[in-house]
Write a structure and sequence with these properties.
This protein is an alpha/beta fold. It has a domain at 430-525: GMP Synthetase, Chain A, domain 3. It is built from 14 helices and 26 strands. The protein has helices at residues 22-27, 52-70, 86-98, 111-121, 133-143, 163-166, 204-218, 237-250, 262-271, 281-286, 312-322, 394-400, 440-447, 483-494; strands at residues 39-43, 48-51, 77-81, 101-105, 125-129, 150-153, 184-189, 199-203, 227-230, 253-256, 276-279, 302-305, 326-327, 329-332, 335-339, 353-354, 359-363, 377-382, 389-390, 407-415, 421-426, 431-433, 436-438, 453-463, 466-475, 505-508. Helix 2 (52-70) packs across helix 3, helix 4 crosses helix 5 (133-143) and helix 7 crosses helix 8. The longest helix is centred in the first third of the chain and has 19 residues, at 52-70. It starts with 21 loop residues before the first helix and ends in an 18-residue tail after the last strand. Mean pLDDT is 88; it is low at 12-16.
Length: 526
C-alpha cells in the first residue's frame, strides 16, 4: 500500500483532460481564458513577438505540409534541433498536429550523440536552426536522413529551404486522427549522466495530464500580464512542458533566450518584467553575485528550481535577498511527479508534494516499503504522468517497470512529517553501507564548510570489493594545492561525518564536470 504519510497537492479539478491529442488540447480549448491575439512568445535577443493564433496557424500549416508533401503519418518521427527559438515551438506543434513523434534534440549534444538519436529513432525529417546548417548535412549523411528532408528555422540558408517556405501553398488538409491518447507524442533522449542515453516515449495523455494538473496548481498565482523566462532548453521535457503549461494553457507570455549567458538573463528579467523564472541551481546562486545588485527584480514573484537540488544556504540567502519563496519539484525525462505550490509553505524546503492522480511508494534496500518519515529508499511511481517506456528497449522496460505498473526511478527519496518528498540523488551514485545510505550531497555539504573550499563532489570507489566514499575538491583561487592541505581537509571533514560517511580518499580537480543543466557527471570521476 502507498506510504501513509505521503501527501498529495490539493488542487481544483483540472479541465479538458479529454482532448484526443496535445495540439487539440492547446489550440481548440473551449476553456481558454485569454484572447487569441495574446502574445505568448517573445524572442529576447530580437524582441520579436508571436501570438497564440500565429503559433496555431503556423503549426497547422507546417503539419499540413508534412502530411501532403511527405506523407508523414502517426508513428513517423520528425526531429528538431534548435536552441530556444519561437520558430522551433511552432514547428514542434506542427509535428504534433500530424500525430507524428517529435524527436526534440538537445542543441548542446555532441555530433555522435545526435547521429545516434536520429538513427535510433529512424527519423524521417530533420528541422534545424540556421546555426546548425553546417552540421545538418553531416547528420543527414551519417544518420540516413535524406538531404531533401532537411529544413531550416530561425534564419536563412543557401543549402536548405526554410520551414516557412515549405509550409506555403499547401491548401486545405484535414487534421489526421490520432488513434489513441496513449500514442507517443514526443521522444526525448536521457542525458546519459549515469547510463547510456535512451529514447523516452512520452504520450499525448502524459502531457495533457500534466498540463491540466500543473495548470491547476500554478493557475491561481499566475497573472495574465506576467512573463515567464525560459532559460532551460525548450527541447528538454520540462522545457516543453513549461511552454505548454504557461504560454498555451495559462496564457502567460514566455520569453525565450537563445544563448542565455548570465548577464543577458539578468537584464531579461528586468527588461521584460519577468514574474516567473524556472532556473537551474547555478543561476539561482548567481542572483547573489554583485552584478545582480543593480538589477530590478521587483516584478519577480516566483522562482522554481529545476534540474538539480539547490543547496540550502543558497536557497535561504536568495529568498532573503529577493523576499520570495523558491519552489521545487521532482521529475525526470520520464515524467514530472512531485511539485510544490506557493501556498504550501511547510514543504518549501523539500521537493514538494505528490501530484494528484499519481500513486507512489518508497522502497527500501531490503525490498520493504518505507513506513516512517525520514526512511530513504528508491522512489517508485505509477499513474498518467509516467512515460510509456524506452524506445525499442523492451529489455530495459522489463527491468524498470513492475508487473503492477510502478516505474522504478532509480532516485533515492524520503518523506517528511508533512508528507513532502525530498530527493537525495541517484541510487547508483550513493553507497549503501551497514543498512544506511551515504548520500553524496550530504557529504559534499560538510566538505564545503572547509574555508578553502569552492566546490566538491563525492563518488563511490571500490576498495577490496567494498564501495567507499571518495571526494574531489576544487579550492578557492589563490590557494595552493598541496598534499598537506588535502590531509587537513580530510581530517576536518571526517571529524564531522558519521563512521559510514567518512572519506576513504580525497583529490584535487580544477572543475566539477557538469551538464549545462547543472547535473554533476559523477561517472566521469570514477
Amino acid at each position: 500500500m502507498p506510504i501513509p504519510q505521503l501527501r498529495q497537492l490539493n488542487t481544483s479539478p483540472a479541465a479538458y483532460c479529454d482532448a484526443p491529442d496535445i495540439w487539440t488540447q492547446v489550440f481548440e480549448n473551449p476553456h481558454r481564458s485569454f484572447d487569441e491575439d495574446k502574445v505568448v512568445l517573445v524572442q529576447s535577443e530580437t524582441s520579436e513577438t508571436v501570438t497564440y493564433s500565429q503559433v496555431r496557424d503556423g503549426s497547422r500549416a507546417f503539419g499540413a505540409a508534412l502530411v501532403k508533401k511527405f506523407g508523414i503519418k502517426q508513428d513517423d518521427v520528425v526531429a528538431v534541433l534548435s536552441p530556444n527559438h519561437t520558430d522551433a515551438i511552432i514547428v514542434a506543434f506542427g509535428i504534433a498536429w500530424t500525430g507524428a513523434l517529435m524527436n526534440l534534440l538537445s542543441p548542446v549534444a555532441t555530433k555522435e550523440a545526435l547521429v545516434y538519436h536520429l538513427k535510433d529513432s529512424s527519423t524521417k525529417v530533420l528541422v534545424v536552426h540556421a546555426y546548425f546548417e553546417g552540421l545538418a548535412t553531416t547528420l543527414a549523411d551519417e544518420a540516413g536522413v535524406g538531404r531533401e528532408n532537411i529544413f531550416i528555422l530561425g534564419g536563412e540558408s543557401k543549402s536548405f529551404p526554410s520551414w516557412k517556405d515549405f509550409s506555403k501553398g499547401v491548401g486545405s488538409v484535414p487534421k489526421p486522427l490520432i488513434s489513441s491518447r496513449d500514442n507517443v507524442a514526443m521522444l526525448n533522449y536521457t542525458s546519459g549522466t549515469t547510463s547510456a542515453p535512451k529514447g523516452v516515449m512520452t504520450t499525448h495523455a502524459n502531457i495533457m495530464f500534466l498540463v491540466s494538473q500543473l495548470g491547476a496548481i500554478d493557475g491561481p498565482q499566475v497573472k495574465l500580464n506576467g512573463s515567464l523566462l525560459l532559460v532551460v532548453p525548450w527541447s528538454h521535457y520540462y522545457g516543453f512542458l513549461v511552454l505548454t503549461v504557461y504560454s498555451f494553457h495559462l496564457g502567460i507570455k514566455t520569453v525565450l533566450l537563445q544563448k542565455p549567458d548570465f548577464i543577458t538573463i539578468l537584464h531579461s528579467i528586468a527588461d521584460y518584467k519577468v514574474t516567473n523564472a524556472p532556473l537551474v541551481p547555478a543561476l539561482i546562486a548567481g542572483l547573489l553575485h554583485p552584478a545582480a545588485r543593480s538589477i530590478d527584480f521587483s516584478a519577480l514573484t516566483d522562482i522554481f528550481v529545476t534540474a538539480a537540488n539547490l543547496k540550502m544556504p543558497i536557497r535561504t540567502a536568495v529568498e532573503a535577498q529577493l523576499g520570495l519563496k523558491i519552489r521545487s519539484g521532482y521529475g525526470m525525462t520520464e515524467g514530472v511527479f512531485i511539485y510544490s505550490s506557493s501556498i504550501d509553505y511547510e514543504t518549501m524546503d523539500t521537493s514538494g508534494l505528490l501530484i494528484p492522480g499519481l500513486t507512489a511508494k518508497i522502497v527500501l534496500e531490503t525490498g520493504e516499503e518505507a513506513r516512517a518519515p525520514g526512511q530513504v529508499g528508491e522512489f517508485w511511481i505509477k499513474g498518467p504522468a509516467v512515460f510509456k517506456g524506452y524506445f525499442n528497449r523492451p529489455d530495459i522496460n522489463e527491468k524498470v517497470f513492475t508487473k503492477d505498473g510502478f516505474f522504478k526511478t532509480g532516485d533515492l527519496t524520503s518523506v517528511d512529517v508533512n508528507g513532502a518528498v525530498s530527493v537525495h540523488g541517484r541510487r547508483i551514485e550513493a553507497i549503501y553501507r551497514e543498512g544506511n545510505w551515504v548520500i553524496p550531497q550530504e557529504v559534499e555539504e560538510v566538505i564545503d564548510t572547509h574555508p578553502s573550499m569552492k566546490e566538491s563532489v563525492m563518488v563511490p570507489v571500490v576498495v577490496d570489493g567494498e564501495k567507499l566514499p571518495k571526494a574531489f575538491v576544487v579550492v578557492n583561487e589563490g590557494i595552493e594545492q598541496t598534499a598537506e592541505l588535502l590531509e587537513e581537509i580530510l581530517m576536518f571533514v571526517n571529524a564531522k561525518l558519521s563512521a559510514i560517511q567518512q572519506l576513504h580518499a580525497i583529490a584535487y580537480i580544477e572543475t566539477v564536470p557538469k551538464s549545462l543543466a547543472g547535473k554533476i557527471h559523477r561517472t566521469r570521476l570514477v
